[in-house]
Design a protein that fits this description.
about 240 residues, alpha/beta, 8-stranded parallel barrel, 8 strands, binds pyridoxine-5'-phosphate
Length: about 240
């Protein structure tokens, strides 16, 4: 069954808007787990625009399920990861001006740098996922440099403005997931998934886990976090039976 991991960065974004202590992403992580999430995802950005070092350290001690640390392959953040030892890391590209992670990693062009990071994590017993676009060359390069997982970027599928475009993007994701799975990579997916577009992706049996943040936190403002998580979980569970 596809698993649901919750990204709690968005709670930290709201807190940072005031620069005080609420809402606390640590509380959001605990509530998400109680509501059925099987993993918590946090992105410690170099510019610390949402998650803070304090959050990462507390979450490392309090997460009961699995901590997936999203990060850029920079020396400062690599050191933090090696220090706190999350259950896995996901390497993402990071640009200072972007609103959110805009595109997948260019693994092909950055093989040596990414391999160096993967080797250090592997030595420390931390599995690495690479956040990539649904592209065959990126999948092959990810396999070649020793990634355990890939996370397929679903942003273009989520942002599609016509049914035709959505179908095309869906086909790319389905094909990429199949190819990566056949290569022996474990496959996650995420970015921009919401209550309307998640079902088709959740129905793909080559995908292990979905990482979802914004849509759940947006709904949580109105329904509460427990209900928002449970409703997403119900949708992805039902998807495996209905497609
Ligand atoms: N996966 C990755 C690598 C991301 O950077 C993000 C955004 O923080 C997500 C998944 C979740 O995306 P969203 O918040 O749009 O659900």
């Amino acid at each position: 069954m596809v698993k649901l991991a919750i990204n709690v960065d968005h709670v930290a974004t709201l807190r940072q808007a005031r620069g005080n202590t609420e809402p606390d992403p640590v509380t959001a992580a605990a509530l998400s787990e109680l509501a059925g999430a099987v993993g918590i995802v946090v992105h410690l950005r170099e510019d610390r625009r949402h998650m803070q070092d304090r959050d990462i350290h507390i979450l490392r001690q309090t997460i009961q399920t699995k901590m997936n640390l999203e990060m850029a392959a920079t020396e400062e953040i690599i050191q933090i990861a090696l220090d706190i030892k999350p259950d896995m890391i996901t390497l993402v590209p990071e640009k200072r001006q972007e609103l959110t992670t805009e595109g997948g990693l260019d693994v092909v062009a950055n093989k040596a740098k990414l391999k160096g990071c993967i080797d250090r994590m592997t030595e420390a017993g931390i599995p690495v996922s690479l956040f990539i676009d649904p592209d065959s060359d990126q999948i092959k390069a990810s396999k070649e440099i020793g990634a355990t997982f890939i996370e397929i970027h679903t942003g273009r599928y989520a942002d599609a403005t016509s049914e035709e475009e959505e179908d095309q993007e869906f086909d790319l994701i389905a094909g990429a997931a199949e190819e990566a799975y056949e290569e022996g990579l474990r496959v996650n997916a995420g970015h921009g998934l919401n209550y309307v577009n998640v079902s088709r992706i959740a129905a793909l049996d080559t995908i292990e886990e979905l990482s979802i943040g914004h849509a759940i936190m947006a709904r949580a403002i109105f329904t509460g976090l427990t209900q928002a998580v449970q409703e997403m979980k119900a949708l992805i569970t039902a998807a495996r039976h209905s497609f």
